[in-house]
């Protein structure tokens, strides 16, 4: 675990030091940044395994930082957990729509954050070892070994979460997958209250798969399934 490097971006030093201290105690290498500009400079120079990103930051806010990270070829797959204030649901939705992998609500439990970090890093490692093969539906082609997706011959860039969701549907085609199942399989945890996370990511995935969005069917009151 000691080779896993995490960047924590938070402008409140007390929170920054608390998070960093607890992650270091778990065995991670932790770097710190107090603003968005500093965070981007560090990400450009250092290959991180995970970014923990506050939204309300000086210089550049968390949304701007996330946009730049997802817009860069070298960092587009960097796992990101956003920190957001309690009750600000719009922040959570916007963050997920911009490509965040997960979010943690302030005030948060340090133990819960550590569990999220462990789950995302484990998921990231598993994604590198999954089996290969080509799966195709009309003009939608998925190279599962190279983790590449093509829509009518054009490559579509998916985030780590979106790719893992799509692979989960492909590997479970024909089965109805509940939100709880997807949370456990793709996000690596089953905390209550996070089913909106699944819905938001599936909406993003469908948008990127257009005009084959209907491949992922909603099963009312149950979950989702891949159209055969």
Key terms:
five-stranded parallel β-sheet; 8 helices; 21% strand; 2 domains; four-stranded antiparallel β-sheet; 42% helix; 228 residues; alpha/beta; Rossmann fold
Structure overview:
This protein has 2 domains: 5-127, Rossmann fold (3-Layer(aba) Sandwich); 134-226, Arc Repressor Mutant, subunit A, CATH 1.10.10. The chain is built from 8 helices and 11 strands. The protein has helices at 13-25, 36-45, 62-71, 89-97, 110-127, 160-171, 179-187, 195-209; strands at residues 5-9, 29-33, 50-54, 80-85, 102-106, 134-137, 140-143, 148-151, 154-156, 216-219, 223-226. The strands form 3 sheets. Strands 2-1-3-4-5 form a 5-stranded parallel beta sheet, with helices on both faces. The chain has a 4-stranded antiparallel beta sheet with strand order 6-7-8-9, with no helix packed on it. The protein has a two-stranded antiparallel sheet with strand order 10-11. β3 (50-54), α3 and β4 form a beta-alpha-beta unit. The mean pLDDT is 86.
In short:
This protein has 228 residues and is an alpha/beta fold. It has two domains: 5-127, 3-Layer(aba) Sandwich (Rossmann fold); 134-226, Winged helix-like DNA-binding domain superfamily/Winged helix DNA-binding domain (Arc Repressor Mutant, subunit A), CATH 1.10.10.10. It is 42% helix and 21% strand.
Q: What's the topology here?
A:
Blueprint: E1 5-9, H1 13-25, E2 29-33, H2 36-45, E3 50-54, H3 62-71, E4 80-85, H4 89-97, E5 102-106, H5 110-127, E6 134-137, E7 140-143, E8 148-151, E9 154-156, H6 160-171, H7 179-187, H8 195-209, E10 216-219, E11 223-226
Helix pairs in contact: 2-3, 6-7, 6-8, 7-8
